[in-house]
Amino acid sequence: MRIFRRRGFVITLAVLVLAGLALYLGNSSTLAGPEAGRRPFLLAHRGLAQTFDLQGVAADTCTATRIHPPQVSFLENTVPSLQAAFAAGADAAEIDVQLTRDGRLAVFHDATLDCRTDGVGTVAEHTLDELRALDLGYGYTADGGASHPLRGKGVGLLPTVPEVFAALPGRELKLDLKHDTPAEGAAVAAFLQTLPPDRLAAVTVTGGDQAVAAVADRLPQVRTSSKAIIKRCLLRYFGEGWTGHVPSDCRHRELIVPIEYGKWLWGWPNRFVARMREADTRVVLVRYVGDWSAGFDTPADLATLPKGWTGAIWTNRVDVIAPLLTR
C-alpha cells in the first residue's frame, strides 16, 4: 500500500509540474517576445498643447493656472492642436465632447468655462455662437497670474466634432464623452451614423457607461470603452485568460490599463497585447500621479514602459515622444 501511495504522490506531482509548465509556456511574455517591427501606438491626449504639474491636483483645481512654461503655442482640443499632434507623429488623437445649449457637439474638456476661458457657467448653458466668442487661452498662466502667455490667442477656436472630422480626413480619433447621459451618447451616434464605414473603423468612443452604451447600441461596429466595459473584460479575462482565450467582453474595445496593474494580467505584456490585438482591442497604457492619469511625456516616462511594448501609450507631448521611439 505504501508503494501505491508513493506512486500516486509522484503522479500527482508530475501532473502539477506539467500543468504549471503548460501555464507558464502558454502565458510567458518573455517567450512570446515583442512583435517585430512595431513601435508603441501613440494616442495624443487632446492634441498637442500645454502640460501642467499633477502633484496636488484636486477635482476642482484649475489646471490652466499651473501650466509649465509654454513650450508649444497650441491650445488643447482645437483644430491647430490636433493637426500639430498628427504632424508630430501621433497615430490617433483624443478629443473631449459636450453638448451645447443648442444641441451642437462642442469639443471642450472642463465642466465649467471660467478656468481656461473668459466665460462663466457650463458648455450646456451656452450656444455654440456664444462659446465661439470666448478666448480659450484666457486663463493660462505659468507664474501664478503674473503673465498670461496665451491670452487673446484662443478667440473663435472652439470647434465642433463635425469640424474636427472635416479638418482631419483619414485620421483616427477618439471621442471622450464628458457627460454620462443617454442624450449625449445619442447625439454622438447620430453624427457618427453619417460617416462612411471606413471612417467609422477609425473611431473610438469612451466615457460614462450610459453615454457609451447609447453609442454602442446604435453602432456596434464602433470601438467603445467605459468603466463597466473595462471591468467586465478584465474580470472575465482574469478567470479565462490563462487558457489563451479572449472573452467576448474584451473584443472590439479599448482597454485603459495603469502601468502598475498590468503585471496581474495573463501574458503581460507582449502576449496580452497580441491577444487583444487579434480581438480588435487596443490596450492603452497610462501612468498615475496621485489619483490622476498622466501621459508618457518625457524620456524618463518612456523608460518605465515594459520592454518591447507595442500597445498604445497616452501622451500629452507627442512631439517629444515620437522622435525618441523612431530612433
UniProtKB/TrEMBL annotation:
InterPro entries: GP_PDE_dom, PLC-like_Pdiesterase_TIM-brl
Residue span(s) of domain GP-PDE: 60-325
PROSITE patterns: GP_PDE
SUPFAM superfamilies: PLC-like phosphodiesterases
Superkingdom of source: Bacteria
Identification of the protein by name: Glycerophosphodiester phosphodiesterase family protein
